[in-house]
């Protein structure tokens, strides 16, 4: 029997596109190990004996990027994948181009972008009713612009680096079907950066 290939999937997406739902499906249905850059930042804050607040998250993340490089949190998340010994894993909370550049150097890594139309994402945001979420369409648009290029992040550029795109404008069941369509292609199609001309496989309903 052939040895199981290593499959590490990184996920990028704007708020309420469905990235978390896709990751949860892979973890529960297919046994993927979960690693997150955000969890690594939280762990650093705990080790410092500080309270985990939004300000401390941003401050700590930026401080270590300045000290060790823009890909430091991706490096730490990758170390957790290696320590797990698992052949299948997901890396969550990827937000910077340098993080993706680091991860794409690792064997078996592919980047998946989960997309959804802005009005659908806004509706999902209203339904989840989380404290601090925008309450009007205008507030939502302002948040989008503010968050796209702050704290070393460039979400648009990250989305453009994806090897696979999944459009999540429909039901959870449709999202899961698209994920199942992606999995057989992993390690059979070259990654985008293996081409002189960039290539992307998209799964749109």
Offer a few descriptive terms.
single chain, 205 residues, alpha/beta, Rossmann fold, six-stranded parallel β-sheet, 14% strand, P-loop_NTPase, Dephospho-CoA kinase
One letter per element, helices H and strands E, the order comes to EHEHHHEHEHHHEHE
The share of residues in helices is: 40-55%
* Number of DSSP-assigned strands: 6
Q: What would you give as the CATH superfamily? A: P-loop containing nucleotide triphosphate hydrolases
In the CATH classification, which architecture applies?
3-Layer(aba) Sandwich
- Structurally, the number of domains stands at 1
Quaternary state of the chains? single chain
**CATH secondary-structure class:** Alpha Beta
Termini distance?
A: 35 Å
Strand order of the largest sheet: 2-3-1-4-5-6
Q: How many helices does DSSP assign?
A: 9
- Major beta sheet, specifics? 6 strands, parallel
Report on the structure:
- By secondary structure, the protein is an alpha/beta fold.
- The chain has one domain: Rossmann fold, CATH 3.40.50.300.
- It is built from nine helices and six strands, in the order βαβαααβαβαααβαβ.
- The protein has helices spanning 19-30, 37-47, 54-68, 72-84, 97-103, 118-128, 137-148, 155-160, 172-182, and strands at 7-12, 33-36, 88-92, 109-115, 164-167, 201-203.
- The protein has a six-stranded parallel β-sheet, sandwiched between helices.
- α2 (37-47) packs across α4 (72-84) and α4 (72-84) runs parallel beside α5 (97-103).
- The termini are far apart.
- InterPro entries: P-loop_NTPase.
């Amino acid at each position: 029997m052939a040895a199981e290939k290593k499959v590490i999937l990184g996920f990028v997406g704007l708020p309420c596109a469905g990235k978390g739902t896709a990751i949860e499906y892979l973890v529960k249905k297919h046994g993927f190990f979960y690693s997150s850059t955000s969890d690594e930042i939280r762990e650093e804050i705990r080790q410092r004996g500080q309270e985990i607040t939004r300000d401390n998250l941003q401050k700590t993340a930026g401080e270590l990027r300045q000290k060790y490089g823009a890909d430091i949190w991706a490096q730490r998340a990758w170390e957790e994948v290696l320590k797990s010994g698992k052949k299948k894993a997901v890396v969550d909370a990827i937000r910077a181009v340098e993080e993706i550049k680091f991860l794409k150097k690792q064997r078996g890594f592919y980047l998946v972008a989960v997309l959804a139309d802005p009005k659908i994402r806004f509706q999902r945001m209203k339904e989840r009713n989380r404290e601090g979420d925008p309450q009007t369409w205008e507030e939502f648009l302002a948040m989008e612009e503010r968050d796209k290029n702050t704290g070393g992040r460039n979400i648009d550029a990250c989305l453009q680096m994806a090897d696979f795109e999944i459009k999540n404008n429909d039901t959870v069941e449709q999202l899961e079907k698209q994920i199942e369509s992606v999995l057989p292609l992993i390690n059979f199609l070259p990654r985008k950066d293996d081409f002189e001309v960039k290539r992307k496989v998209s799964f749109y309903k």
